[in-house]
Amino acid sequence: xxxxxxxxxxxxxxxxxxxxxxxxxxxxxxxxxxxxxxxxxxxxxxxxxxxxxxxxxxxxxxxxxxxxxxxxxxxxxxxxxxxxxxxxxxxxxxxxxxxxxxxxxxxxxxxxxxxxxxxxxxxxxxxxxxxxxxxxxxxxxxxxxxxxxxxxxxxxxxxxxxxxxxxxxxxxxxxxxxxxxxxxxxxxxxxxxxxxxxxxxxxxxxxxxxxxxxxxxxxxxxxxxxxxxxxxxxxxxxxxxxxxxxxxxxxxxxxxxxxxxxxxxxxxxxxxxxxxxxxxxxxxxxxxxxxxxxxxxxxxxxxxxxxxxxxxxxxxxxxxxxxxxxxxxxxxxxxxxxxxxxxxxxxxxxxxxxxxxxxxxxxxxxxxxxxxxxxxxxxxxxxxxxxxxxxxxxxxxxxxxxxxxxxxxxxxxxxxxxxxxxxxxxxxxxxxxxxxxxxxxxxxxxxxxxxxxxxxxxxxxxxxxxxxxxxxxxxxxxxxxxxxxxxxxxxxxxxxxxxxxxxxxxxxxxxxxxxxxxxxxxxxxxxxxxxxxxxxxxxxxxxxxxxxxxxxxxxxxxxxxxxxxxxxxxxxxxxxxxxxxxxxxxxxxxxxxxxxxxxxxxxxxxxxxxxxxxxxxxxxxxxxxxxxxxxxxxxxxxxxxxxxxxxxxxxxxxxxxxxxxxxxxxxxxxxxxxxxxxxxxxxxxxxxxxxxxxxxxxxxxxx
Length: 703
Ligand SMILES: [Zn+2]
Fold this sequence. Notes:
The chain has helices at about 10, 50-70, 75-85, 90-105, 110-130, 130-145, 150-165, 175-205, 220-230, 245-255, 260-270, 280-295, 305-310, 315-345, 360-370, 375-380, 385-400, 485-500, 520-530, 535-540, 555-560, 565-585, 595-605, 625, 635-655, 660-670, 680-685, 695-700, and strands spanning about 205-210, 240, 400-405, 415-420, 430-435, 445-450, 465-470. The chain is mainly α.
């Protein structure tokens, strides 16, 4: 997942960071940052600084906008569009730090501030988009666009501004504007509440195990981590399993105790579904209804039509077409996988019917039987530090980048490591923070974000400050952090987003780095996962944490052979979530009092999902679509996967996954271009043709 900051896109689309301006204040968020590279001064920033900083920053942004609208000169690209790009520097800065901390260092105090600030920010966003004088100026520039001799990037920026205003309601009659504002405020609050509830439910659940015998089957490291968790949670001498991925996944994979597997799994899939004040079902229905009302008001059939207009897919039907091509083969494969598992169960002493909480356990058995491969055989080769180095080495081979660890740069938590990124010739590229271990103050998943984005509006190339966050297996008392193969892929994925941000070479921040449509943004991230599993690359970084021995060829071969293992399940659970998202947002009518559970079940039944699999996200903890920016957009990963599989094919066709010319073209046409051109044009320039779905089907073994 990229840029959590996108939660604030409505405001950020018209704001820009510009460190050349200096502010004098006792509030560190409002003063000049005299830190190395101008990174946020984390040691000085306290929770109480955010509220006054937001208010001051909004006030300043308003003044800057007033200066644009009150300009007596006729509107030009420079005095209107570029002037807007220069406005809101301070707000962008405050918002980027706050949203990063809300995702990975949150607490009740920050949650409360978010609840307070959210309506102000929503109102501020609407004040801009519904500012008639401002729109009039932008419209005038837009109408003359063909005579202005703008370059490609300027034209794209102008079009984006114009569309952003129209889509934000600039052409709505007065009576509808008030309702639009109400909806936006309401949605911003509901989405915060939704996310907060998932986090609370995630942390609230714990499964305390008192008898060691109940953990039969679990690897030693997992038991050790559970003992650590118990200690931290005041259950010394016992073991605690939580809903953090490094805890629940191995339990489901290895624990022989079926009842406990069920208990833990149900804890996970019922987050936000337990009644009471943390239940998210009502919020989901209310949000979907409000989104639909807003879309209709703006002239669209549904929320999905509204959202997709700005993506590569353009409309719901194109998404349905793609998902429709993938669903039947994925489901058929998943059914075959389930049947294989049922066979194993039927051969046991006390057979039973395979249930969703059994899947991981029997999948592991199959992996072992068919491929003689066990997740835990791989883990000793994936010491976190080595995997990080592996990702760095890939980018060095492709783009010549170098990563130097810095210990003089302020960071927000002791688990964070900071790197300076340089070109082969030593030129500064940017800063990268990595923050990989779970904690209660961090939400689940993995993501990339920016404290500062690249831009060179005033000639000086302002370089980006990027972060990668994850929730990987922590070191235990006697072992370093040894991550799973899946986590290796996640680390490379987020690193790909980081490269997209770091290698950006755009003039305008609004178009820089990862400011691209959702269904394109996962191309740079997902393509990196390809390298992570290439034998040649594995050999270079997968070294046994004790002996330093590289992973034996035999084991690498097993990984390669097992690459289609469980793909039916993985693709089906993902597609089911994508379809569920699309279903929510293509409804043409929604009763805000909708029975969400019934709605969901009926739909999953309708698409033929088997009960042994549930969607990767159920509505009540589907943060991507109800607390992130992915509503009608969860399909983006597979849309981008078509692109990334085909783009990786370009390297393969050259017979060298590090082919210099192809890497150079990927950097020039994709990574450095941000959103300065239409994604389909960027892809075409890189690949020389339109993307084909074949490489993806082949990779997933669905063909
Ligand atoms: Zn991503």
